[in-house]
Amino acid sequence: MNEPAWRRLDVRMLAVFSLSEVGAVVVVLFIMLIGSRGDGAWQLIGAVLAPSALVTHGLLRWLTVRYRVGVERIELRSGLLNRQVRSVPRDRVRTVDLTSSPLHRLFGLSVVEIGTGSSTAKDGRLHLNAVATKEGERLRRELLDRSPIAWAKPTALSALPTSVPGTLPGSGPVRESHLVATLRLSWLRFAPLTTAGLVALSAVFGTGFKLADDVGVRLGDLDAVHRVGDRLGAAPLWLAVVALTLGVLVVVALGSMAVYLEGWWGYRLTREPDGTLRLRRGLLTTRSLSIEQRRMRGAEVAESLLLRLFGGARCAAVSTGLDAKATSHGALLPPAPLAEAHRVAAQVLLLGDPADATGAALDQHPPAALRRRLIRTLLPTVIVVASAWWLATTVPQLAPAWPAALLALPLAALLGLDRYRNLGHALRPEYLVIGQGSLIRRRVALQRRGIIGWRLRQSVVQRLAGLVTVDVVTAASAGRYSVVDLSMDAAVHLVNEVNPGLLPTRHPTNLSADLTNDQEGRFAEPTLS
Amino acid sequence: MAPRPPRHRVNPRALRWWTVQAALTSAAALLPQLVALELSDARWLVVTTSVTACLAAAYVLIMPSWRYRVHRWEADEHAVYTLAGWLHLEWRVVPISRIQTIDIERTLLQRLFGLATVTVTTASAAGPVRIVGLDAQEADRLVRRLTAITQADRGDAT
Lengths: 529, 158
What we know:
The complex is a heterodimer of chains A (about 525) and B (about 160).
Chain A: E1 7-8, H1 13-20, H2 22-35, H3 40-64, E2 66-69, E3 73-78, E4 84-89, E5 93-100, H4 102-106, E6 109-116, H5 121-124, E7 125-132, H6 133-144, H7 155-158, E8 178-182, H8 195-215, H9 223-234, H10 237-264, E9 268-271, E10 276-281, E11 286-292, E12 296-304, H11 305-309, E13 312-319, E14 331-337, H12 338-348, H13 367-394, H14 408-422, E15 424-427, E16 431-436, E17 440-447, E18 451-458, H15 460-465, E19 467-474, E20 480-487, H16 488-498, E21 505-506, H17 511-517
Antiparallel strand pairs in A: 1-2, 2-3, 3-4, 5-6, 5-11, 6-7, 8-9, 9-10, 10-11, 12-13, 12-17, 13-14, 15-16, 16-17, 18-19, 19-20
Chain B: E1 2-3, E2 8-9, H1 13-39, H2 43-70, E3 72-75, E4 79-85, E5 89-95, E6 101-105, H3 108-112, E7 115-121, E8 129-135, H4 136-152
Antiparallel strand pairs in B: 2-3, 3-4, 4-5, 6-7, 7-8
C-alpha cells in the first residue's frame, strides 16, 4: 500500500503564531527597557533577540511538525531534539474539533484537535496548530467517515442503536444532514444566569484597572468618577446601595449576554449523513466539533441553581474521545429551556422520547439516604453556627449579629432535602438514568451497552445505614458516574439487570454478617485449574 | 439480597506484608513527632505524639487481620470480581469482554513475601481492578488463564 506523503502545517501559521505571541514579547521588551538601568547595548540585544527567538520558535515548529493520514493510521511527528512520533489507528478517532480564533480566521486557518478512545488525556489527543480551514474540513470528513472504506467494520451501521424505527424523523442512518437544534435569541435570557459573563467581566475589569494604573490614570482623579461619586454620596445610603447594585447587575447581564453571543452565535447541531454529530458555533472564534454517533455513550442535562430557578439547563455529550477536564467540551447546547435540553439529549441519543433518557421519572432512594443528606448538610452548618456563637460570646461587639447565623440552619435543611429529592435512578430500555445534586442538579443518561464495569462502595456510616454507592464505569468522559446511597438490594438488582448474572448474589440479607460468617471455609480455598 | 463475596481469599502471607506496610506508614507518621519531641517538650506535642502512637498501634495490630478477612477475589470466563477494603468496602466487577490489559506487579516489599498484584485495566479513566496479595506463582497462573480467556473473547472493550 502506498503511504501518502508527509504534510506540514500551513505556512501561514508562522504569521498567526508570531502575532498571537506579540503581547508576550511586548511585555518582555517593556520589562527589559524599563527594568534594566544598564547601558543601551543590553537593551538593543534584547530588542533584537526576543522577536527573533519568537520567529525561530515558530519556524522550528513549522519545520518539525508533520503529519500524514494513512489508510490505517494517523501519524504526527514533532520535536527537533526530542523527536516524537505519535501514531494512532484511524478507527480509534472519536471526535474532530476545529477551532479558529479571529486571528486564525484572518489567515484562513483552523486548529484541529483529534480525540481518540485512549483514556489518558495526553496520548488521547492529537493537536494541529494550524492548518488551512479547507484542509481541516477535509481531515474532519475523512477521519470520521466510516462508510466507503474497506477497514470500516461491517458492524459500523448495524451497531447504531435504532430505537423504534420509523417513529422518529431521522432515526437510524440518515441520508442528509438533519438539524437537531439551532439558536433562539429568546435563550439569551439565560445568559445572565451563568457565571461565564461574570468571569469574563471581572477579567476585563481587572485588566482595565491594571492598564489604567500602569498608564498612570488614577480612577479617583477622573472627573466623571468624581461626579458620580458625589451624586451617590449626596443620596441616602440605601439609594446609593441600590443604584450601585443595579448598575453592577446591568453591566454583568450585558457582559454575559455578549459572552453568550460570542460563544454560541450561529449555533447549529446537526446529524450528518456520515454518522457524526456536528456542532458549529461562535461569532469571533468559530468552533466546530464532530462526534462519531457510534461513540455516543450518553448525555447529561445539568441545571445550576440559578438556571433551575428560571427553568434553564445545559446539555452535554457523554462520549469517548472528549476531554473530561475541559468543561466546555461536550456541550451540545447553550444554556436553554429545560425541556429543550431534554429534547436535544434524547435526539442526539437517537431516541424519540426524552422519558427514555434524561427525562425519565426516577426511582427514589431509601429514607436512610434522606437522613444522610440531612446530616451531611446540617452537621457542618451546626458547627459553623456554634463557632459563630462562641465568637459572639468572646467578642461582645459581634453579639447582636450572631443570630443571623441561625438562618443558615433552615437553608442547610432545605439543601439536604432538595439533594434527596433529586437523588434517584431509573433503568430504561437502552439507558441507565442517574439523578443527583442540588446546587448543580444533574441528570445523566448512560448507554447500557457502554457500561464496562461496576463498583459498589460502602463506608462505615453507609454500612450502618444499609446503603451503598454504585459507580458505573464507562470509557466515556468522566470515566465513572455514581448512583449514590442505594439500598444493597437495589444496587445488586441494578447491576444484574444491566449485566445479567454479573454480580453473584446470596440470600441471607444481613451484609455485615457475611464478612464474619464466611470465614470458616464456607467456600473452598483457592484452587486454580 | 446481597452480593456473595468472591470465592477466594488472598494468600495468608499478605497478613505479614500488610503488617510491615502498616508499620512503615506508622513510623513515617511517628518519627518526625518523636524528633520534634526530642528538640522541644511542648505540651501539645506530647499529646499529639501519644495519640499518634495509640492510633498507629491499633492500625498495625488490627488493620492487617481485618483486611485479610475482607479481601477476596474470583475470576472465571465471565468476569473478574473483587472485594477489598477494611473500614470502607469496595466490590469491583468487570466483564471479561471489557478487559484491555492484564498486568502483574511485584514491589520490593511484595517480593520479600513472595506476593504479587494482578491489575486488570479497562478503557475507563476511573482506574483498574486490582487483586493484591496473591501468591506470586498463583498470580502468574491467573494472568495466563485470564489472557487466554480474553483472547478467546475479543471485543472492542470500549
